[in-house]
Amino acid sequence: MQQWARFTIIGAILVTAYVLVLAWQKDYGNTNSTPENTAVVSNEVSADVSTSQTNVATDVPTAANVAGNQPANAETTATTNQQLVTVQTDLYRVWINPKGGDIVRLELLNHDSSKNSNQPFVMLESDKNRTYVAQSGLIGANGPDSSSSGRPVFEVEKNSYTLVDAQAAARTVGQAVKVLTIPMVYKTANGVEVVKTYTFTQGQYPITVDYKVINRSQQSWQGQFFGQIKRDDSVDPGKSSQGIFQLGTYLGGAWGTPDEHYNKLKFSNFNDEKLNQQAQGGWVAVVQHYFVSAWIPGTLKLTQADGKPYTADLQSRKSPDNMNIIGFTSPVITVPVGTSMEVNATFYSGPKIQSELKDLAAGLNQTVDYGWLWPIAKLLFLGLETFHKFLGNWGWSIILLTVVVKMILWPLSAKSYRSMAKMRVIAPEMQRMKEEFGEDRMRFSQEMMALYKREGVNPLSGCLPLFLQMPIFLALYWVLMESVELRHAPWLGWIQDLAAMDPWFILPLLMGVTMYVQQMLNPQPNDPMQAKVFRLMPIIFTVFMLFFPAGLVLYWIVNNSITILQQWFIAQNVKKEKEAVAES
């Protein structure tokens, strides 16, 4: 029975290790991706490169087959030296291409590209290194984006906007929230005016993209609004390679509806298992480590009527040049002569902050993917977030969380440790019985079970603490790997990133020491082979932990340290009880 208990413990430890290795490679690690150049990108973007990267005719989705007028030609055509429109807020630095009005570059000012870099994190870009852009437009019978002359060229009042302009305007009218609007105008030869407006709000990542069509022509206008994300197969810039392991996180498409909140769609399946779903209140996205870009269809307003949510077609496809495209199209919209219509959507490109994403669309917050242990992971993150509010440090928050978890599990683990302490006390008696009965295994097993019953010992109880800790350990791993709040979060001294491995390997070595001490407090195996395996486990796990996030190793050290104190305290009590019984 004791051997089975030890084999169970060893098996549980190995299963934990195996599951964590699988977790690293979960969602494929994007093994089919092409290498990405690591050259530093300057703050100034070449208009020539960006324009050429976003003017491919195949970018535009196929419109619904509805009878109508042919697309009107533009009065002007695109020029290769078109200057990009730059926008800067407190969170973003954005470049918009007047041809098509697409976002061709987006930098996150509050997130560094790497721990030791002052360069902002580049979310979207379109150059020789990577193509990752947000596109939107009007297609269909009269949609300018379906014109044979190519994407429409919008006129803009100026080429540079900042939130400072919006702040000044807000103070003039007494507004509390600063809103920056950028109208872009396109006019057709037959009298249709299209106004595309970007709206940025201070302190908020969501960007509103609004299209207004004013029909001053002599015939009805028909078209569809589309929004999509186009990305190549370059690697995730947030993915890190540490030591012999690559920390694999999901890079690919995702979508959701009110009925099916969160679904993944690998880039490789954009054609074979392509998305083709109608939904009102849905969303589409490209997900990467810590960050997400998403389109959320909005409302449609005809003339003076109130805007109402529209049912959008969620779609995915591979372009002929092997680009991954996921997006949506609205229903066919008809604008009679002398009337107007407005249709909009929200575009989000930034960190995966759960509190912000959940208010945008149902299931969008699940792009913070905690895996199958998400209920435990969410509770752990809630605890970490609560402690961080008054501690101000994620490292100390992890330590306090570990203490709280140990206190909650104390009643269950105490029974187990008490049984293990009793086994350590009766170990000499078991050795004597083994020598006495020799090869008579049947008699030895009978006497051993009688001893267990007499002393109130459960040999399988040693497995309980490990089984209790395993799901918490795995869930905390995903919290550290998926929560952008812990990205580049320092603790103290040499630990400047709790989501990365310890650069000096001090924490893994301390973990190995605590694991060895804890093991010495457990009853030692009588079988020489088992004893050798148990002595090797601290070494194996120390090597294994060298490449784990420092925050996870910190949790394990604190957990082991508290367990050592708990086991020592219980062992002393059991020893005193045994001595008291012997004296009486």
Automatic annotation (TrEMBL):
Residues 85-381 form the Membrane insertase YidC N-terminal domain. GO terms for molecular function: membrane insertase activity. InterPro entries: Membr_insert_YidC, Membr_insert_YidC_N, YidC/ALB3/OXA1/COX18, YidC/Oxa/ALB_C, YidC_ALB_C, YidC_periplasmic_sf. GO terms for biological process: protein insertion into membrane; protein transport. It is a multi-pass membrane protein. Residues 394-571 form the Membrane insertase YidC/Oxa/ALB C-terminal domain. The keyword Coiled coil does not apply. The chain crosses the membrane at residues 7-24, 394-414, 457-480, 500-517, 538-558. Keywords: Cell membrane, Chaperone, Membrane, Protein transport, Transmembrane, Transmembrane helix, Transport. The keyword Ribonucleoprotein does not apply. GO terms for cellular component: plasma membrane. Its main location: membrane. It is found in: Cell inner membrane; Cell membrane. Belongs to the OXA1/ALB3/YidC family. Type 1 subfamily. Interacts with the Sec translocase complex via SecD. Specifically interacts with transmembrane segments of nascent integral membrane proteins during membrane integration. Required for the insertion and/or proper folding and/or complex formation of integral membrane proteins into the membrane. Involved in integration of membrane proteins that insert both dependently and independently of the Sec translocase complex, as well as at least some lipoproteins. Aids folding of multispanning membrane proteins. NCBIfam families: PRK01318.1-3, yidC_nterm, yidC_oxa1_cterm. This is Membrane protein insertase YidC. It comes from Acinetobacter apis. The lineage of its organism: Bacteria, Pseudomonadati, Pseudomonadota, Gammaproteobacteria, Moraxellales. The gene is yidC.
